[in-house]
Amino acid sequence: MMATAMTDIQELYGAALDLQSAEEIARFLDTACRGDAKLRAQVEALLDSHRRAGNFLGGTSSNELATIDRPKSENVGTLIGPYKLLEQIGEGGMGLVYMAEQQRPMRRLVALKIIKPGMDSKQVIARFEAERQALAMMDHPNIAKVHDAGTTETGRPYFVMELVRGIPLNEFCDQKRLTVRERLQLFVQVCQAVQHAHQKGIIHRDLKPTNVLVTMADTVAFPKLLDFGIAKALGQSLTDSTLHTGYSQLVGTPLYMSPEQAEMNLFGVDTRSDVYSLGVLLYELLTGTTPFDKEKLTKASFDEMRRIIREDEPLRPSRRFSTLGAQAISTISQHRSLDERRLSKILCGELDWIVMKALEKDRVRRYESASSLAADIQRYLSDEPVLACPPTTMYRFQKFARKHRPVLATAAAIALCLILGTTVSAWQAVRATTAEAQANANEQKAVASAAVAEEKEQDARKERDEVKALNEKLAAKEQQLQRTLYAANMKLAKVAWEESAVHQVQELIEQHRPKTGEQDLRGFEWHYLHRLCHSELLTLKGNYVDISPDGKLLVTADGRGNVRLCMAQTGQELFALKGDIYGGRAFFSPDGKRLASSTGDGGVKVWDVQTGKELLHLTGGGREPVFSPDGKLLAAGQSIGDGTNKNNVASKVRVWNAETGQELFTCNGQTGEIWCIAFSPDGKRLASGSKDKTVRIWDALTGQELHTLKGHDGYVEYLAFAPDASRLVSLDDRTVKIWDVKTGGEIFSLPGRSRRAAVSPDGKRLATATDGFVKIWDAQTGDEIHSLSHASYSIAFSRDGKRLASGSGDRTVKVWDAMTGQELVTFKGHPNVVMGILFSLDGTRLASASNDGTVKVWDSTTSPEARTLSQTAGATRITSFSPDGQRLAGIVRAPNSGYSINTWNLKTGEMIRTFGAKSGEGLLCLGASPDGRQFAVGTGKWDTTKNDYVGGDVKIVDSQTGDELRIFKAHSTAVNRVVLSPEGKTQASCDVRVAST
Amino acid sequence: MKLWNALTGELLNTLKGHTRFVNDIAFSPDGKRLASHSRDGVVKVWDVEAGRVVLTITSATMLPDRGSISFSPDGKRLAGSGRAVSSGVGPGALGEVKVWDAQTGDELLSLKGHSLGVSCVVYSPDGKRIASASGGAAQALGAGEVKVWDAETGKDLLTLKGGVFGHRIAFSPDGHLLASDSGGTVKIYDATPLPEKP
User: Fold this and answer.
1) Which residue, among B4, B22, B39, B176, would best test binding to A if mutated, counting the most A CBs under 10 Å from its CB?
2) CB–CB of A32/A306 below 8 Å?
3) Which of A232, A543, A656, A913 could form a disulfide with A903 if both were Cys (CB 3.0 to 4.6 A apart)?
């Protein structure tokens, strides 16, 4: 409380000191002290002592100021605390601004503002300190930081700020000839910065163009707000800045001052005062002039100035602009890169209202925050209706009534008298008559004023209507543009889909997901493409996948040691297992009860699938682990280098009891790292391929080496036994070789450069990814059967051997008929090369792993692009869907058999019913009744001698039973088309019509 | 063309007027009008009750293949295969879909983009889209396509490739599925909206 009182006194004292005449001081104190005699006495006592000290009130002439503002003690080169003054860069109402070099704790350039004498430094610094924490919390790119404050040796307060080299906002805009739109965009940034400060509890109190500097960051204009916290510290009300009338720049502040600030309501200033100042800034940015004339305000006395700010309604920007001289109009328009008439037009309407709402005298009617002002400007910029609007009739009337309250009161009283007139006495009547004359005059005045108000309102209404019409036109145009853009993007999205760039499809369509308030342009095409983008059943993390033998579980590994076990249907994660360090893959044991993964550090871990519990951790041999077909053994490679050469290693295959972890034997002999291991299906043999370019065949019971297969030119990457274990397929980085397991002799090798190989489950075929094709070979002879165009990196047969899947670098997964080579389905969605692929045991699911780190699961039987209904091969003609959309009917003429009417279940794609036609009868067209209970079918009778149709009937058939209900025999040729009228929606209706032709 | 009462089998009317084979017929949604599309290149709209022509449109296709006509769900418009730009014969003909005012016969839109004759034109149940199928002749097997258009602006929104000669298409009642008997099999294109993620 004491502190506040002190502040009060100090502020009033400071303010009064700057006033010019004793009369003004008296008036100032009348207002400011508000009858607080004690306060006033204290201030007056201070003033008195000041006067006695010889610094006579009002004696601060401009000359004197100039000398005071350039004290010899603080020149360039002077050291103030840790700051060395380098150059004077500015001069403001409050003092001088220097560029200074901070010497410690860090060297940097700062701006240092030294406040002119007359302020109580202690108070200033105390106030600054009080707000310092809040200032420190202000962290906004558009706000210059205030680093520090202190007192010079001469006792003057100074502030240290971030050095901003910029141009005042309005000058910048004029120099760069920014358009109105560009100005508004810049201004929005200013509002947002002010909002930021407000949110931290800091009010600027002195926003003006010189406090908003614009710098260029690259080619982008970047406004910076200066002096946050300084006006407050200076205890600035109106006082400090009003009085030095000799300096035009000093008068700057009242031009931007809110009415409540002008009222010298020292403690009633809130964030909305800054909104007002922003309104003035905006006014100036748009019109090139402030709401109140600078000259007029400069010349006005202190009281008159306050009155103007508090009471005078400024002209709307568009009006103000048109009142300026021709020369000014021309200059201002040029600065905005516009011709004169256009600028006036642009300002007129919504921009007028926005500015005027910010400039409302009553702060309750202003924008409640800087951000809501910014939001309205943004609405204007994006052609949305603004919140600001011309004053309503009621508001206008209220304003009018306030101004003319006495007149209106009389008018009302007289009107009442007139009503009562018939019953009053003659005397009263005489009086009333006299008064009436007066009242009439007043009333006429009032009516005239009201008429003016009405006229103005009509103007505003007309303006609003014009703007509204324009807005509607713009909205319609935008609608049209939106539709054009939509159509273009849908087309692009389809092209992207065809190029398998699913993420691009997604980007394109997501642009058209309507935001709140936007029209939904989406239709069939959007949802179709959207489904295509999500055609996989599941997406999981990882780049390796295995499906459990029962098809219920999936395991993925991401190569970073993360192994995840999931439900194959839902993708729900059951366990996330950690294989110590980077492990390549994770896979199920043949019984599906265990899960194994190499740990990458030369070990293998085995977990229980049910519990996720670690069962085994085998160390020394973590390369390419594999279970024996019965699940009892686990084999993995181990390499022991001699330390000199990475390639010069001794390798062995270690074989453990997969349940106990007991090592059974090792297969020694290979000299390069083991790259692949395979058990023969009968479990009797073990083969290993190595970097030493050999394949070894071992006895899987003893570990004894049986054969060394030589002939590969590269590291052996892949091995697979034929189902009967008689042959072995091996692949190095290029060539596929087939070996006789018994003799160890090479049978043949396949031509071309192969990346992958797979043996069909029946062992009769081989599939390879060779030279950009998927090739299918006869496993016995090595003859090429099919060559399918797909540059694949992974291939897999379905377990029944009927289908083959391939994953490609073109980001697609394809499923082929392994017998005919026909392409069945293409899946898209992986953003990168598909490296691994595998069918579920029942063949319905296909899992693919990509080096993008995702595993996707697909329905291997259904094309995402279109479902194909079963048994529709041959000429098929469809009709409408059933009313519930669940079924579809059509005529099928299957090859080598007659016509039939078929009905399919759309969910399953299966045929539900089929009704065959009579032999020799052609079914040519089909219609369905609106309720779906009846079909109308048009027939044709083919005459083989005439080679033409010789007649046709229309039959009504029960869609459930196939019974013929009615026959219309009438056409002399085949019935080409039959439709049922949409009227008879119920069976009872007798108005169902059939039209045929 | 003949009109029967479907329940009684009574022949109501025989509509005569087209000079050539009638490709397609369609009832208006209220069942009071019947539109017919003939190989003579004319679309006629008939008053079903009176059995007389109320509108004749002459800008329809004259392809030897199938032509098609469809009422919009509000009955105010007709969409059908229109007269092709080129000779209109054979696989080289450019197929066009036209939208006419069903009252005045004025041509409102011309949907260009099919490279073959248009065999089927249907409105989506909400009337916002038009789907059309094109296929030229047997030798153009596989070159046919289904297109989805904005029914208001006529903009081409989606092309589904791979059809054959003279196939037909149909929207499911909810407009989410599009069936096409292209390629000798029936294909279902699914645009059922996916559930929004919460």
Assistant:
1) B4
2) no
3) A913
ipTM of this model? Answer: 0.90
- Closest by Cβ to A528, choosing from B153, B158, B167: B158
Interface contact flag, A528 B189, Cβ < 8 Å: yes
Dihedral pair phi/psi, residue A257, rounded to 5°: -90, 140
- Report yes or no: A870 and A914 within 8 Å, Cβ to Cβ: no
Among the partner-chain residues B5, B124, B194, the one whose CB lies closest to the CB of A524 is: B124
pLDDT above 90: residue A428: no
Q: How many CB pairs under 8 A join A and B?
A: 204
Banded model confidence at residue A434, pLDDT cuts 50, 70, 90 = low
Contact A993 B12 (CB under 8 A): yes
Token pair for A559: 């190569």
> Which chain B residues are closer than 8 Å to A929 by Cβ?
6
Q: Give the per-residue pLDDT at A250.
A: 34
**Backbone phi, then psi, for A684, in 5-degree steps?**
-90, -25
In single-letter form, the type of residue at position A176 comes to K
What is the per-residue pLDDT across A663-702, written as a single tens digit (0 to 9) for each? 999 998 888 888 899 999 999 999 999 988 999 999 999 9
Which tokens belong to A833? 């090369």
Q: What tens digit of pLDDT does each residue of A714-764 get?
A: 899 999 999 999 999 999 988 999 999 999 999 999 998 998 999 999 999
Give the SS3 label for residue A113: strand
What is the C-alpha radius of gyration for chain A, rounded to an integer number of angstroms? 45
Question: What confidence score (pLDDT) does residue A54 get?
Answer: 40
Mean pLDDT of A323-330: 81
Task: Give the CB-side neighbour count of residue A512, counting CA atoms within 13 A.
Answer: 25
Q: What value does the mean pLDDT take over residues A598-615?
A: 85
Can you tell me whether residue A649 is helix, strand or coil? strand
Selecting from B11, B150, B189 the residue whose C-beta is nearest the C-beta of A487 gives B150
Distances from the Cα of A228 to the Cα of A8, A109, A161, A637, angstroms: 21, 19, 10, 71
Q: Which region, left, alpha or beta, applies to residue A84 given φ > 0 means left and ψ of -120 to 50 means alpha?
A: beta
Q: What is the dihedral of CA A429, A434, A436, A438, to 10 degrees?
A: -160
From CA A144, how far away is CA A160, in angstroms rounded?
A: 10
The nearest alpha carbon in chain A to B123 belongs to A524
Contact B152, B109 (CB under 8 A): no
User: Which candidate in A8, A18, A174, A206 is catalytic?
Assistant: A206
Q: Is A206 a catalytic residue?
A: yes
Q: Mean pLDDT over all residues of chain A?
A: 79
CA distance B124 to chain A (A): 9
B102: pLDDT strictly greater than 70: yes
Whole-number Å distance between alpha carbons of B80 and A300: 79
pLDDT in tens, A215-240: 887 678 889 888 887 777 665 443 44
Alpha-carbon gap: B86 to the closest alpha carbon of chain A (Å): 25
What's the pLDDT score for residue A526? 95
The token pair at A331 is 């200059």
The whole-angstrom distance between B155's CA and the closest CA on chain A is 6
Among A486, A866, A976, select the one facing B187 at the smallest CB separation.
Answer: A866
Band of pLDDT at residue B63, cut at 50, 70 and 90: low
Q: What is the nearest CA distance from A965 to chain B, expressed in angstroms? A: 9
SS3 B2: strand
β-pairing verdict for B52-57 and A784-789: unpaired
- For residue A637, the SS3 value is strand
Under a CB-based contact definition with an 8 Å cutoff, are residues A615 and A606 in contact?
yes
Distance (Å, whole) CA B186 – CA B179: 7
- The pTM assigned to this predicted structure is 0.60
CA distance B90 to B136: 6
Please state, as a whole number, how many other Cβ atoms lie within 10 Å of the Cβ of residue A796. 21
